[in-house]
Design brief:
The chain is an all-alpha fold and 540 residues long. Among the domains are: 200 residues, Growth Hormone, Chain: A (Up-down Bundle); 88 residues, no CATH class. It has 24 helices and two strands. The protein has a two-stranded antiparallel ribbon with strand order 1-2. The longest helix is centred in the middle third of the chain and has 37 residues. The radius of gyration is 23 Å and the shape is globular.
Length: 540
């Protein structure tokens, strides 16, 4: 009997999975569009609900809270239900969140919008848990990396599309109206892209339910980055491991404080309260007390727990005895915080800080034509629609260019060195932005997208290096660290409210300093000479 020829989408048993692969690949585009839409919302809510920048960052808070809540449950449900029904459940949650946007705009409460954002993120958490490993088994194993990279190219399609959509439905530009009136008009249409997205998701649900998806096992999806290293990464530096664990405790207590503050805030905050300065001042005092109290209590108990249980937590073969893993958890927390802040306040920066534009750029399709600029004091400045066009045509394409070029450079360069270098460059770019020196600062904002591009997957790979069978548990903790994207953008927004949007970029600057240190000192943390030939197969 002739031996079956394996291929890119053909498995050893002769089955061709081309259709299933492209069906799964569409999921990559889906969550890219959904995630990118989130980052175009903040300025709309600032105008419509009279929010400060810090309060508008509750959009990102809800988004990452959804991922945080489902990071571990998604894996458990998929283990019980299987990958096919895990996808269906994730799509159903996302569709529910999208459909909720219609009544949310009629309810006219900020909490209602945040609920929709959180539901969508919870659904996407399922999809991201399934999609990357599933692509690896839909053909010859030797082409697994090629299939992941091909699927990631579908992800690349979604990021630039969403800001165009957001510019059309989330913003209205009329020179004769003020910002509040323009926002009132735009708010009536913001549900449209979400209901349309829900329709697409429902079609995908039917397609997956009727498709014959091959079974996969845990062994099929093992990540080579998690295989046992040639050096022993456990228990070599107990003092350093302890220090890093205390840092994790501080970040954890800070995150818990922000979560409790968030739920108290959305319970009491309505449009009438937001429009009343005295009521908002009283609410902010209450929120400050809640945050400080919860953070202090959780922080004290966490530090006491680590101190008492240190020898049980940090022992030979314990996950927490590998400082490169603990460091990766901290670095990922700070990276996602920096990314979320830069993405979500991009429109604010472009509208508030970009100098006057010339006549040639004013009418250019590059900023969306006439609606991309507005006349103020005899000069033309960017509008929200102009900013969303630049996000689509410059910022996200630079991010994707960095991802593609980075995937080639990582094949021949030590991953930790590249991470350290890119983070250091972004530190310099952030300080140029903070200095607020005209068009040079504007260029620095765009360049930061390029140098952020490889950080999420690279930190992830460095964090699970050499952990062997513990790599799956380590992956869950690193994924949960994206809670940083919920917490620190609120700090960035608060600084932006008080000192101007340029000053707010000091927050990602600090984040990138820590990430650079992690990259440059990774060999000391891991006891390894470094990783090369790293494949970019995941990313948020």
């Amino acid at each position: 009997m002739a031996k079956t020829k394996k291929g890119l989408f053909t498995t050893e048993d002769g089955r061709n999975h081309t259709f299933i692969f492209f069906l799964v690949a569409i999921l990559f585009t889906l969550w890219a569009v959904g995630n990118s839409l989130i980052d175009t919302m903040d300025k709309h809510f600032q105008d419509y609900y009279h929010l400060t920048k810090a309060d508008s960052a509750n959009v990102q808070f809800s988004h990452y809270l959804g991922y945080f809540f489902m990071a571990l449950p998604a894996g458990w449900f998929i283990h019980k239900l299987g990958y096919k029904w895990g996808i269906v459940l994730g799509l159903s949650l996302a569709a529910l969140g999208c459909l909720w946007f219609y009544p949310a705009t009629k309810i006219d409460g900020f909490w209602a919008v945040l609920l929709g954002v959180c539901l969508i993120a919870m659904g996407f958490s399922f999809l991201e848990t399934v999609a990357n490993p599933y692509t690896t088994v839909l053909g010859d194993p030797k082409y697994a990396a090629s299939r992941i990279n091909l699927a990631q190219s579908f992800n690349a399609i979604g990021w630039p599309i969403a800001p165009f959509i957001g510019g059309i439905f989330f913003y209205h530009t009329d020179d004769t109206l003020n910002a509040q009136q323009n926002a009132e008009i735009a708010h009536q249409t913001m549900w449209i892209p979400y209901v349309a997205l829900a329709g697409i998701i429902l079609v995908l649900i039917i397609a997956f339910m009727k498709s014959k998806m091959p079974d996969i096992t845990e062994n099929d999806t093992n990540d080579s980055a998690g295989e046992t290293a040639k050096v022993d990464v456990f228990g070599q530096q107990s003092r350093l491991s302890t220090i890093l664990l205390y840092v994790c405790a501080v970040l954890f207590s800070f995150a818990v404080g922000m979560i409790v503050r968030f739920f108290v805030q959305i319970f009491y905050m309505d449009r009438e309260t937001l429009a009343n300065p005295e009521a908002m001042a009283a609410l902010n005092q209450t929120l400050k007390w809640v945050f400080n109290s919860v953070t202090a209590i959780v922080g004290i108990f966490s530090i006491i727990f680590i101190t008492v249980k240190r020898h049980k937590l940090i022992h030979k073969n314990s996950l927490w005895s590998a400082p490169h893993f603990t460091g990766a958890t901290i670095a990922q927390f700070l990276y996602v915080a920096a990314q979320a802040g830069i993405f979500s306040f991009f429109i604010n920066y472009m509208v508030e800080e970009v100098p006057a534009i010339g006549e040639s750029l004013k009418a250019s399709w590059f900023i969306g034509g006439e609606n991309g600029s507005i006349l103020r004091d005899g000069h033309y400045f960017l509008t929200e629609k102009g900013a969303t066009s630049l996000m689509s045509l410059m910022a996200f394409p630079l991010f994707l260019l960095g991802r593609f070029t980075g995937s080639f450079i990582l094949r021949v360069t030590k991953a930790h060195k590249m991470l350290g270098l890119y983070a250091f460059i972004n530190v310099l770019l952030m300080f140029i932005i903070v200095a607020n020196i005209g068009w040079l600062s504007v260029a620095a904002v765009f360049l930061s997208f390029f140098f952020m591009s490889i950080m999420f997957p690279t930190i992830f790979s460095l964090g699970i290096f050499g952990l062997g069978e513990k790599s799956k548990l380590a992956s869950s903790f690193i994924v949960m660290a994206i809670m940083g994207g919920a917490v620190l953008p609120k700090v960035m927004g608060a600084i932006g409210d008080a000192e101007g949007m340029s000053a707010g970029y000091i927050v990602p600057a600090i984040c990138f300093v820590v990430i650079a240190l992690y990259g440059f000192f990774w060999t000391k943390l891991s006891g390894s000479e470094g990783m090369s030939n790293v494949k970019i197969g995941t990313g948020h």
